[in-house]
Amino acid sequence: MRSLRGGLSGGTIDSMRQQLIQVSSDPGLRARVSRPLALVDGPAPESAARRSTQPRRRVTTGISRDARSGIWQARFAMGGFNRQIVLRSNALAGWPYGPAFRYREVVDTGRGPIGAAKAAVVSAGTTAFMIAMFLAPTRRVLNRLLPDPGQGPSEQTMRRGRFLVEVVAETTTGACYRTRIGADCDPGYSGTAVMLGESALCLALDGDVADRAGVLTPMTAMGEALAVRLRRHDFTVSTAPA
User: Fold this and answer.
1) Boundary (domain end) residue, out of 151, 171, 189
2) Number of domains into which the chain is organized
3) What is the domain extent for residue 126?
């Protein structure tokens, strides 16, 4: 995540809240939610299954430094959810990324000592928030401070919103590609409204979308057809060698 500006969505926060309430009382559900391949139907290739179930060798801080750019990075709060969707896309498409494909999401916090400090603050804040939402006493305190479902940012905040995501893909041959996805709109409201509306129109009107049904992902259901529609609304969706 290169840049992100927008308001807090009460509905999104409540979705996270309800999931944490459920997993806090169900160890089995908690284990499933934490599995990267939890949304993959049927048997996965051996290397993918092994990568998903192997125990963590060490506790990580959630902070890293990109070797190519020198940019410090912190763990992105939604990364765990998004990773499961991306891995489901890989499975539904027949594993075109390969069974050893790995995916993670991070927040760009800049270079140098300041970037490292920001990464530490973001990582610590994200961890503290998740723990506070997981525990009932602290969750009750947060419930008084956070927006309720149906509440969100002002029109002025939404007008100032923007986001830019860069997906850096490294292949087994050493080639590297960078995909940029972004727009000058609030990612959680006006941006999401455009994406949802164009997704519905794409499924209803475009003839080159997937000819299968089921619980698909945006990539496997619409792919490039949706990207074309989003570009018409001044969304950036582009890929080039890194």
Assistant:
1) 151
2) 2
3) 7-151
Specify the residue for token string 């164009």.
198
Would you state the structure tokens that stand for residue 4, as one six-digit string?
């992100």
How far is it, in rounded angstroms, from Cα 168 to Cα 41? 27
| Distance of alpha carbon 165 from alpha carbon 237, whole angstroms | 10
Q: 162 and 147, same structural domain?
A: no
The encoded tokens of residue 239 equal 């890929």
107: enclosing H helix or E strand: strand 106-110
Encode burial over 193-203: b for 16+ CB neighbours within 10 A, e otherwise: ebbeebbeebe
CA distances from 8 to 13, 91, 235 (A): 8, 32, 21
Mean pLDDT of successive 10-residue segments in the chain (242 residues)?
89 89 87 90 72 48 86 91 94 90 94 95 92 90 90 89 95 93 93 96 85 88 94 96 90
Sign of CA dihedral 66, 234, 193, 91: negative
